[in-house]
TrEMBL record:
Pfam families: Pyr_redox_2, Reductase_C. Its EC number is 1.18.1.3. GO terms for molecular function: dioxygenase activity; ferredoxin-NAD+ reductase activity. Residues 320-406 form the Reductase C-terminal domain. It comes from Variovorax soli. This is 3-phenylpropionate/trans-cinnamate dioxygenase ferredoxin reductase subunit.
Length: 409
């Protein structure tokens, strides 16, 4: 990286924050511009569906204070999204009309919450992606008695569990036959379902939603399995869509995500992309993936920093994820094998107490994924095992008297 290099980062979420930190640490004197659509400097998104909703006083937790960016020589462009990229001229135009030149450009544009067009603009319907939406949802929650969550994925269930903890009557509508079906094993889905139901959540899996009935600007009812379900507050948590519009308009290859190589370079080497918005080649999975997690955003940003600072190395990270839902602390390391994978088997390892356990998923004797429930030490050790490519004997791994770290020695 030459000392005069201009790097423009478009984003302002986890990946962008980690890029800024990595470039500052590398200390090679690049001029860095951070272009953020949101008016805030980068903050942590995970609390928005958890502690933030519970605590009226809680503010978004910043990655770093604003002064840090100035000290690191990073110029902030807040609340001024990038509206166009000119790859030939190597410029980015912002909504304000400002034009920034770059030698390397990094797209860290994340995802946006998937919407249902029929419900946009209704006063008792919420989405959750950014801090302003979380603040709106928090005030809507304080006024609601009954909360309906559309979508039994991570964010929907986290909001549902938070709402239940606030004393609301909560209904979750999931169209798939099980909860979290894209991310966890059927056995874990079953456990999550049973735990939330036991806590008093009304969860309907395989739910068929039909017509929506509005009264003025409010959603009054949804048809569920042929019956009208009255709605007080509806939170729509039906997944996220990668934010690729800028990249597509700039002629970069996209396929449900901005396509990058193992160095986070897009189809134009001068342009990198990181985080939720990317589709990247995963060595362990042997295929291209798009992941939505803090771990993925941070690790891809580290790979991009290495590329930008002349220390390029291929991306190679064990994916991991967590989700806090009421009494459940779910932690996943690796990717769960698809249902029906030949040679797959699972062993259950009891956790440190009755509420905890881990599911170790093997394929042809190789450890592929560990799903932990209220077993944080086993989760940490599982990540290390997967990073080291170790596959403990399933019978021994199932014995809680033998710490998983034994298998790392
Ligand atoms: C409520 C919630 C809870 C979550 N909980 C967890 C959790 O418990 N564990 C976990 O691992 N992950 C969790 N996630 C997912 C995690 O937050 C994301 O994977 C992570 O934020 C991805 O980082 P990113 O930088 O790729 O994208 P983001 O953090 O989404 O940031 C993208 C940023 O780019 C900005 N942007 C988009 N287009 C432009 C443009 N044209 N110009 C300028 N800026 C632009 C967006 O406004 C946004 O600020 C959660 C997400 C949400 C929303």
């Amino acid at each position: 990286m030459s000392s005069s290099q201009d790097i423009v980062i478009i984003g302002g979420g986890h990946a962008a924050a980690q890029l800024c930190a990595g470039l500052a640490e590398a200390g090679q004197g690049a001029r860095v511009h951070l272009v953020c659509e949101e008016a805030s400097i980068p903050y942590h998104r995970p609390p928005l569906s958890k502690t933030f909703l519970r605590s009226p006083e809680e503010a978004p937790q910043l990655h770093r204070a604003e002064a840090w960016y100035a000290e690191a020589g990073i110029t902030l462009h807040l609340g001024d999204p990038a509206s166009a990229i000119d790859r030939a001229a190597r410029t980015v135009t912002l909504r304000s009309g400002a034009v920034l030149g770059w030698e390397r450009l990094v797209l860290a544009t994340g995802t946006r919450a998937r919407r249902l067009p029929a419900l946009v603009g209704l006063s008792n319907v919420a989405l959750l992606r950014a801090a302003d939406e979380a603040a709106q949802l928090r005030s809507m929650l304080s006024a609601a008695q009954q909360v309906t969550v559309l979508g039994g994925g991570f964010i929907g269930l986290e909001v549902a569990a938070t709402a239940l903890g606030l004393g609301k009557h909560v209904t979750v509508l999931e169209s798939a036959p099980r909860l979290l079906s894209r991310a966890v094993s059927p056995a874990l889905s079953e456990h999550v379902l049973a735990t939330h139901r036991a806590a008093g959540m009304d969860i309907r899996v395989g739910a068929k939603t039909g017509a929506w009935r509005t009264e003025g600007q409010r959603l009054a009812a949804i048809e569920v399995d042929g019956q009208a379900l009255p709605v007080d507050l509806l939170m729509v948590g039906i997944g996220a869509v990668p934010e690729t519009a800028l990249a597509e308009a700039a002629g970069l290859e996209c396929a449900d995500g901005i396509v990058v190589d193992a160095y986070m370079q897009t189809s134009d080497e001068a342009v990198l992309a990181v985080g939720d918005c990317t589709r990247f080649p995963d060595r362990r999975a042997g295929q291209a993936l798009r992941l939505e997690s803090v771990q993925n955003a941070n690790d891809q940003a580290r790979t991009a920093v290495a590329t930008l600072t002349g220390a390029a190395r291929p991306h190679d990270a064990v994916p991991w994820f967590w989700s806090d839902q009421g009494s459940l602390r779910l932690q996943m390391a690796g990717l769960v094998p698809a249902e029906g994978t030949p040679g797959a088997n699972t062993v259950r390892r009891p956790g440190p107490n009755a509420a905890g356990f881990s599911l170790l998923h093997y394929v042809n004797g190789m450890l592929r994924c560990v799903e932990s429930v209220n077993a944080p030490v086993d989760h940490m050790m599982s990540r290390k095992l997967l990073e080291a490519g170790r596959s403990p004997d399933p019978a021994v791994a199932a014995d809680p008297a033998v710490p998983l770290k034994t298998h790392l020695a």
